[in-house]
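Researcher: Structure prediction, please.
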Amino acid sequence: MISDIKEVFEKINRDKFVVGLDINDSFAQVSVCKIDSDNPSTLSITEGSEEYNIPLYMLKRRSDNTWLFGNEALEAEDEGVLVDKLFERARSKSTVRIDREEYLAKDVFLLFLKKVLLLFPVMVSPDKIVSLTITLKDANSDIILMLQELPSLLKINPDILHFVTYEESFFYYMLYQPAELQNHNILLYDTSGEKLRSYSLMRNFFKSPGVASVDVKEYSNFSSDAPIPYEKGEKYALFLNISTQLCNSTVYSGVYLIGQCFYNDWAVESLQYLCKGRKVFKGNNLFSKGACFAAKEKLLPSGKENKIKYIGNDRLKVTIGVETDDVPKEEIPLIEAGSQWFEAIGRCELILKETDKINIYLSYVYNNYIARGEITLPGLNVSNNRVTRVSIEVKMISEDTALFKVWDMGFGELYASTGKDWEQELKLEG
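Model: Predicted structure follows.
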């Protein structure tokens, strides 16, 4: 018996997990998967149910200063100050006043996320998470910078944290679906926000590897949670009109429906239309599962992306590199086209001979245009046949701006480093 228990605990300790975290203005949701499995499960806040969404509420209980979150915070509203709209407040860099204390909304929001990620069963402790991907409806540099503080709160390696948009989560989710859904376009409707959104996953296999992109549309006249009063049959007619326009212009082999909105009676006739010649799926956890698959691919690439590559708005359309002074010149790519801008970083070392300039190039994938330029290093000693080794780092700091950093490394025992370093921003063309 003791040996059996020991074997169980040894197996638990060997298990490692990848995690997908979906964050939007209304809720957070978590899916988790063993690294040797293709079947993620989504954390339910009520055991045995499919209640996956954890609402963005926090409350500091006055009686014992304990922080409550989600539905528990909402139910204890009389016991403290309820803080809502956590993600929205954090993005706006506002503060939150709770009784006599003032907190940064960002800190309250990150504490919420920490508590969400510690809801896992005992076997999925933070030290067993080897890849964590956060998926967002919209991402910018400020949001990414804020969320990059999460690993320190969880005491995990920051290098395991990655980010994808909803569009890319959709792409990764479909990578792991059955073969009959792999070769055609797929349509997704999302009603988890205030307005209906459609995501059209378009695949082009005429190139090798194939190319996938996602076209997103938001319908301001279609309210997901229905504060707008609809006449009987109006919502059905509106959705049917949207669907017929999309499906008449593009052939879809499958349709995914996300949100409680689609479980209401109005949707029955619309579903009958969508089911004609297409497979239709309803659920609420596609994006967190897609993020989980993304976390798995970033840790242990399966080879699925060798057949088809995703190119989205968050992906760079240009390769950034440097050129050597050799004859013939050699191009060294530092950031490849197709990389996510908020994760794109490249490094190399270069030998400079009697020059204080570094030649750079930008190779744009859509029109094969190559732009060339140079970075000047003021104060670098280039006299008397001097040879210098420099260390170069380039990192994207926004969707269209790269930051070059250069350090003088000297050249062995011949020339000592001056200790100088340089920074220069480079704006990319559209």
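Model: The first strand starts at residue 17 and ends at 23.
Researcher: Thanks, that helps.
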